[in-house]
Design goal:
There is one protein chain. This protein is of the alpha/beta class. The chain folds into two domains: 5-155, Orthogonal Bundle (DNAb Helicase, Chain A), CATH 1.10.860; 184-442, P-loop containing nucleotide triphosphate hydrolases (Rossmann fold). Helices cover 48% and strands 14% of the residues.
Length: 444
């Protein structure tokens, strides 16, 4: 039988080495492997079973690492086999010398060997029947075509094949509510939901506004609503510290004003809210600061969030962009394309919110004021501009925030409204009626 055991073991080892690297799935070894291989691609029984465990963990949105795969192998009965306790360590050991950077080469070798086995099996089956006069030529040809088709599929490097039937069936399940995955959900900001109907997987949104005009606050409200629905959230920060976002979320939870969190009177309530946050959302929330783009991609491949928030685009460009010389517009364009590409990547689809600064100024914001607006607007499915009038006008009520939908590929609705807000906790409340909103906007 045609096989390449060393390549098979190197594939499994590469995935385990990659998951244990400081860069957090720097090479996306598992993503590369599962795009071309199935458990049937392996002839080594240990490799086949471990790969099955990896696929199960991935389907459950669990990390594909030594600890988690060990648990799944126990579920599959793997550790009931004698002498198998150290197999995972053996795969990732120095004696095996797997390199995550070369996983594509190992995968190619395994796929080629699997294709040859298909051809070999087809030839053996046909040669035994070809001399039988009772076998019809048409049936033999059909079998030969099926064997060649299976071999071509096993060897194929086209990992982007489109499955229309599977895609349509998945869409029908989502629309009928029979799909358990999070496909579209309410943002928790009533004014935004009024115009757009919620946020959905595969969509790339931009929250734009000047400094201090509730961009991050709006994103935290969406994060809180997403977590409350039992969905995973990842946030990548390039301004405030990670702890500040946790305090914002705790403020939304307990009602203690965000600006008063350092006051002694707020201590007990805030502590209880943080404990509640940890207890309810452990395993559902990850916040990272200052990561480079390849590392972000690895985190998303591992964690599989439903919502990803980037804060802010301009700080992200300053800290992560490499190349393009001093062309700021190309740096921003590269990040916007990165965010959009990741949001629709098969197997890792999610909703993305990219927070962006507006040019300095006062008054109602416009799409034209998005910094480097060409690249930002072009890549986004939805652009929401936020304006807190009390920052510009002393007479404006602090409990009002203007929400403007400047671009909307989801349903085409564009418009402006006013949302109530608790200025202390920065929780968005009910939307004002059209007459009340017009009256408020007219007073500015």
């Amino acid at each position: 039988m045609i096989t390449d055991i060393r390549a098979e073991r190197a594939v499994i080892g590469s995935i385990l080495v990659d998951s244990a690297s400081p860069g957090e799935y720097e090479f996306n070894a598992f993503v590369v492997a599962k795009a071309r291989l199935t458990s049937a691609s392996f002839t080594d029984p240990d490799c086949r079973l471990v790969f099955d465990a990896m696929l199960l963990a991935d389907a459950d949105r669990k990390p594909v690492d030594l600890v988690t795969i060990g648990d799944y192998l126990q579920v599959l009965g793997f550790f009931k086999q004698a002498g198998a306790y150290g197999i995972l360590d053996d795969f990732a050991s120095e004696s095996n010398m797997p390199s995550a950077a070369r996983v594509g080469h190992y995968v190619h070798l395994v796929a080629q060997a699997a294709a040859r086995r298909h051809l070999q099996a087809t030839w053996a089956a046909l040669s035994a029947r070809a001399d039988d006069q009772y076998e019809t030529v048409s049936e033999l040809l059909d079998e030969a075509e099926q064997g060649v088709k299976a071999a071509r599929k096993a060897a194929s490097e086209d990992t982007g094949a489109f499955d229309l039937v599977g895609t349509v069936n998945a869409l029908r399940a989502r629309l009928s509510g029979h799909d358990d995955s999070a496909w579209r959900w309410r943002t928790g900001v009533e004014e935004i939901d009024h115009w757009i109907g919620g946020i959905g997987v595969g969509e790339h949104w931009v929250f734009g506004g000047r400094s201090g005009h509730m961009k991050t606050a709006a994103a935290c409200n969406v994060m809180a609503a997403t977590l409350a629905g039992g969905h995973r959230v990842a946030m990548f920060r390039y301004e405030e510290q990670v702890e500040h976002i946790l305090l914002r979320l705790a403020s939304l939870e307990c009602g203690v004003a965000y600006g008063d969190i350092d006051q002694p009177a707020a201590g007990d309530a805030l502590d209880a809210a943080l404990a509640e946050l940890s207890g309810r959302y452990g395993g559902l929330l990850e916040i990272h600061a200052g990561l480079d783009l390849p590392v972000i991609e690895g985190v998303i491949a591992r964690f599989k969030p439903n919502l990803v928030v980037y804060d802010t685009l301009q700080a992200m460009a300053d800290q992560t962009s490499k190349g393009h010389g001093e062309r700021r517009d190309l740096q921003v364009q590269s990040i916007c394309q990165f965010v959009s590409r990741l949001a629709i990547m098969p197997g890792n689809q999610h909703a993305a919110i990219l927070i962006s600064q507006l040019q300095k100024g006062v008054g109602r914001p416009t799409m034209r004021e998005l910094r480097e607006s060409g690249a930002i607007e072009e890549s986004a499915d939805v652009v929401v501009l936020l304006w807190w009038p009390s920052k510009d006008h002393d007479h404006a009520a602090r409990e009002r925030v203007v929400v403007q939908v400047g671009k909307n590929r989801v349903n085409g609705k564009l418009g402006r409204g006013v949302s109530e807000i608790d200025a202390g906790t920065q929780r968005f409340g009910a939307r004002l009626s059209a007459p009340a909103a017009d009256c408020f906007l007219g007073s500015l």
